[in-house]
Design brief:
There is one protein chain. This protein is of the alpha+beta class. 43% of the residues lie in helices and 23% in strands. The protein has four helices and seven strands.
Length: 195
């Protein structure tokens, strides 16, 4: 079994080095507010549901026809609402994702760098892109940002939280023209090989 040694000065990020020629895509920071508001809404919803069910339980236990000597036990409600509440709070980690996301588009590739405590690099060569998909939710329309997913054989790259501005529009439009040109060249190449 071979042993792989990683030196102290090894920087894996250099494999995805961002050349000076690449255009930086502007990223919106509005999703931070959107994420925090969504988590706060879920916490308030769970607390409200807990209070409603607690009142219903107290009302049922106060009736003579209910067979309870000790009254209503709220520990059952705590266990019923605590786990979904904790599950919804797990998204706090992703609230500030847009603050540590960087995206670059060059002549040959697209690079997306994400993360603060650990960094994830995604790189996709433009010649391999088969499809580009744009997603914009309600708050994205309201605050002017969207996500772009670029698909290639065997994977995809997501550029999240792209600001809707003229520079980004021109850069993405140039990318789409380049992808269309590459697809046309592939189609012509297939036609010449089959004839």
């Amino acid at each position: 079994m071979p042993i792989i040694t990683i030196h102290k000065n090894c920087n894996i990020g250099k494999l995805f080095a961002i050349p000076d020629k690449m255009t930086k895509i502007s990223i919106s920071h509005w999703p931070v507010l959107e994420s925090i508001l969504w988590i706060a809404f879920r916490v308030i919803l769970f607390c409200g549901l807990f209070l409603v069910f607690n009142q219903i339980g107290e009302w049922i236990s106060s009736k003579k026809w209910f067979f309870s000597e000790n009254g209503f036990d709220t520990s059952f409600l705590y266990s019923m609402f605590l786990f979904p509440l904790l599950y919804s709070l797990r998204d706090i980690v992703y609230c500030f994702d847009s603050c540590w996301t960087r995206a670059y588009i060059g002549n040959n590739s697209v690079v997306v760098k994400r993360g603060w405590s650990y960094t994830t690099y995604d790189k996709l060569y433009i010649k391999d892109i088969n499809n580009i998909e744009l997603y914009r939710g309600f708050l994205g329309k309201l605050f002017g940002y969207s996500n772009i997913t670029m698909y290639a054989f065997g994977g995809n790259v997501i550029i999240p939280f792209i600001k809707d501005n003229k520079t980004n529009y021109q850069t993405i439009q140039k990318l789409i023209k380049q992808v269309s040109k590459n697809q046309q060249q592939r189609a012509n190449c297939r036609l010449t090989h089959t004839t």
